[in-house]
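Is 2'-monophosphoadenosine-5'-diphosphate placement plausible here? Inputs below.
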Amino acid sequence: MSRICLTVTEKTIDEAIKTVSSYKEDIDIVELRIDYLEEDELNNLDGFEVDFPVIATYRKVNDGGLYSGNEEFRIEILKEAVLSEKFKYIDLEEDLIAPALEVLSRDKGVRIIRSFHDFNGIPKDLSKKLMSVKRSENEIPKAAVNLRNSADVLEFYKEALLIKDEEKIVIGMGNFGVNTRILAGKIGSYLTFSSKEGNEAAPGHMSPRVLNRLYRIREINNDTPIMGIIGNPVMHTKSPKIHNEGYIKLDIPGVYVPFETDNLEKFIELANLLEIKGFSVTVPFKNDIIEHLDLVSEGVEQIGACNTVYKEEGKWLGENSDYIGFIDPLKREFGNLKGKKVSVIGAGGAAKAAVYALIKEGAEVLILNRTIEKAADIANKFWCYYEPLNSYSTDLIKRFSDIIVQTTNVGMHPMEHINPLNFYNFKGNEFLYDIIYAPEKTVFLKKGEQAGCRILNGWDMLLEQGYKQFKLFTNREYPV
Ligand code: ATR
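Reply from A.M.:
I modeled the complex. Tokens:
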């Protein structure tokens, strides 16, 4: 297990105390960043009364902090912090050798976090380097290194896992390192740092509430099943919320973690190293992931895209839960789709999954796309009709209008004012399905609704594809 440390970067001691108290349910340790305090406040360090063990950190500019004065003054302030008896730890960088302060700390029962930072990447032999900075048994070594890519992430975990049964703090910074902050308990990091929302003290910090309530990081240990999502970018996805809330509701161990990725081979090696049970795949890897898998489902083969990977008997298997997520809400609405006449707008990856699912259910499909060749490719593969996306197709659309499915990104920011079917007048008996969920109602749906059409957005599809993945990853039904 690991501890959640709140890094406080307020200007005054009073504000710092308030911030700590607003997170008291979700933290175990506090780091007071002295370098963020106003100068006058340096005399008030002994007023920092909180109910948690506190780390005093006075960080220099070179190490990512704000302090730019001389070393003597910095050491003096840290000494006062030790003497105030309000601090359980002080943070000293590896190049700050201050024997008197070290002795004083030991005598006062204050532990030293001996830290080094690398904003340019991961140093060679990170584990050796980390253990070599420790100057006495009173010290906990800490490394915070910037992870720039998937190769760095893999190297980071390999090195961090080499150090067993020793107190240490290891952190990967940046978007690629967010997962290392969540998996602190897996790699045996003494603590993980967090910040107040909107006030990140270091690249990749999350809020203590998210770490505690969504990722349950205090409970993560070496046996916790790990699931995740790969993509680039990946930090904005809703999937961690969907999956982690499922484990919480069922009260089962498990954590679902975002892995920003730029190299699939390295990620698969990492997935094997961390014994990841399964992962979701998002843009831009849904196609490229396929060649890295041992076996894929018929759906993946037909659609040419895979959004779900899970391990079974040591093999990586690929599934496409997008098409199931797409079709289930329609089946709920109509029961049976056999013989239904459906127009599908778009001919990208999402359209392909939709067309595959519709044909499989026995619907008859007309594909409409701006680039006709792409519509033709899908139509030829799945045996359906195709037409250009313009008024020339109006009569045919009228014949394929039991359901009209919108799969393009037109309607989403920055095209939120555009209706891709603006040349068509809804009769009012069409069922409209837009796979976009933000905005909640696209112009396409709004216009249809005004004409009396029943409408559905992509929210249910997003949830359903997640539920299907959940089942494959955990063998349990999602607790809807
Ligand atoms: P996805 O995998 O999300 O479906 P995609 O493969 O890039 O994404 O496909 C995007 C779809 O949106 C395509 O059908 C594209 O039409 P083209 O094939 O003609 O490019 C469609 N699209 C994107 N911008 C569009 C626009 N401004 N007007 C009409 N269609 C658009």
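Short version: The longest strand covers residues 111-118.
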